């Protein structure tokens, strides 16, 4: 499911903020954000911008980066919507009245994606890795990404009552390894592109775990993992060397992901560590609040906040809400408030 960085959303609730005369808290989907008092009512529609959205440098957005004295300033190149704490409450995203967007068609229903209409970009981290792009991502292999539970709260009901597993989301960068189904070449990819063989973290990990040899024997299997360690993000796991924490095994011949236990068995057979399991059970009964609570915690042996969690059924399943694989994430708010990406 494509992430809607800007969409038409209905206000589900308005809450007062203690000791605040000019602002209040609006609830949209599973998110909450601070808005001007009286600007919205329950049931009203607005344009909601998710965290990580990058609006264009236009007058209607410039209050986001303009100094308090109101002096003109060019949009900072690093600007994006982030999780903030305002007057003691969490604010995630931005909600603006529809009247500010006359270019949008009248009568768009709730949920309509207006990201492209409003020229909203997505912030991407710039990783300090010595890598070079070689070419496209592996053909026919899904790229790695999960929707946040706040954006698709309906997905919780799809998993209710079913066997499930919750794993740690490591704070690193996505890496994909496999044999190219057309060329037969061992291919290493980052999040969006294949990476040239060389002195970089992606290939160091491939060599460390002997993936070129292992996957040559299992050419149908693609391993997707979080690449973690020194020089990647802030190395919040406190590692001394590059490591992989695998979270997907994709069978490119049959076009399917291996179920959790099946993937674990395969990864064990080739000596690649799997992501840590925080919880598994036979009957999923969590709500959004409990998932966000589980997301908060520390990486083992460190004082560093973990990024969050990934939630899936034990057996692979299709989600009608997501329009694809039933898999979603909850990012720790403590992690975000302390500067996590």
Description:
The structure is a single chain. The protein is 13% helix and 32% strand. It has 341 residues and is mostly beta strands. The chain has 2 domains: 117 residues, OB fold (Dihydrolipoamide Acetyltransferase, E2P), CATH 2.40.50; 205 residues, D-amino Acid Aminotransferase, Chain A, domain 1, CATH 3.30.470.30. The chain has a 5-stranded antiparallel sheet, with no helix packed on it. The chain has a 5-stranded mixed sheet with strand order 11-23-20-12-19. Strands 14-13-16-17-18 form a 5-stranded antiparallel sheet. The longest helix is centred in the C-terminal third of the chain and has 11 residues. The radius of gyration is 21 Å and the shape is globular.
**The CATH top-level class label of the largest domain:** Alpha Beta
User: What oligomeric state is this?
Assistant: single chain
Give the number of helices.
Answer: 6
- Mean pLDDT reading: 93
What's the story with the biggest beta sheet? 5 strands, antiparallel
CATH 2nd-level architecture of the largest domain: 2-Layer Sandwich
CATH superfamily of the largest domain: DNA ligase/mRNA capping enzyme
- Under CATH, the topology of the largest domain is which? D-amino Acid Aminotransferase, Chain A, domain 1
Q: Tell me the fraction of residues in β-strands, as a range.
A: 25-35%
- Categorize the overall geometry: globular
The strand count comes to 23
| Class by alpha and beta content | mainly beta
Kindly give the count of domains: 2
Distance between the first and last residues' Cα: 21 Å
How are helices and strands ordered from N to C?
EEEEEEEEEEEHEEEEHHEEEHEHEEEEH
User: Residue ranges: pLDDT <50 for 5 or more in a row?
Assistant: none
Radius of gyration: 21 Å
Strand order of the largest sheet: 3-2-1-4-8
Report the helical percentage.
10-25%
């Amino acid at each position: 499911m494509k992430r809607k960085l800007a969409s038409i959303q209905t206000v589900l609730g308005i809450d007062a903020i203690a000791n605040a005369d000019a602002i209040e808290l609006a609830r949209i989907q599973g998110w909450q954000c601070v808005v001007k008092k009286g600007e919205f009512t329950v049931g009203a529609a607005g344009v909601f911008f998710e965290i990580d959205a990058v609006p264009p440098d236009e007058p209607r957005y410039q209050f986001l980066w303009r100094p308090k004295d109101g002096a003109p300033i060019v949009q900072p190149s690093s600007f994006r919507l982030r999780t903030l704490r305002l007057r003691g409450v969490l604010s995630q995203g931005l909600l603006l009245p529809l009247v500010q967007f006359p270019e949008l068609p009248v009568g768009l229903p709730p949920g309509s994606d207006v990201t492209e209409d409003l020229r909203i970009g997505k912030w991407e981290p710039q990783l300090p890795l010595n890598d070079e792009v070689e070419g496209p991502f592996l053909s026919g292999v899904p790229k790695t990404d999960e929707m946040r539970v706040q954006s698709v709260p309906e997905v919780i009901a799809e998993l209710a009552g079913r066997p499930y597993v919750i794993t740690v989301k490591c704070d690193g960068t996505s890496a994909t390894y496999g044999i190219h189904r057309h060329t037969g070449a061992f291919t290493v990819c980052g999040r969006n592109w294949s990476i040239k063989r060389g002195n970089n973290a992606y290939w160091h990990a491939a060599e460390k775990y002997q993936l070129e040899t292992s996957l040559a024997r299992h050419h149908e299997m693609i391993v997707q993992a979080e690449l973690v360690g020194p020089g990647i993000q802030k190395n919040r796991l406190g590692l001394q060397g590059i490591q992989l924490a695998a979270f997907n095994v994709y069978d490119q011949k049959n076009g399917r992901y291996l179920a959790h236990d099946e993937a674990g068995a395969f990864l064990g057979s080739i000596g690649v560590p799997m992501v840590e399991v925080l919880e598994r059970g036979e009957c999923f009964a969590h709500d959004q609040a409990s998932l966000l609570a589980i997301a908060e915690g520390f990486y083992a042996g460190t004082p560093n906040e973990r990024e969050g969690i990934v939630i899936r059924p034990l057996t692979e399943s299709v989600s009608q809400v997501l329009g694809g694989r039933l898999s979603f994430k909850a990012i720790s708010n403590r992690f975000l408030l302390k500067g996590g990406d």
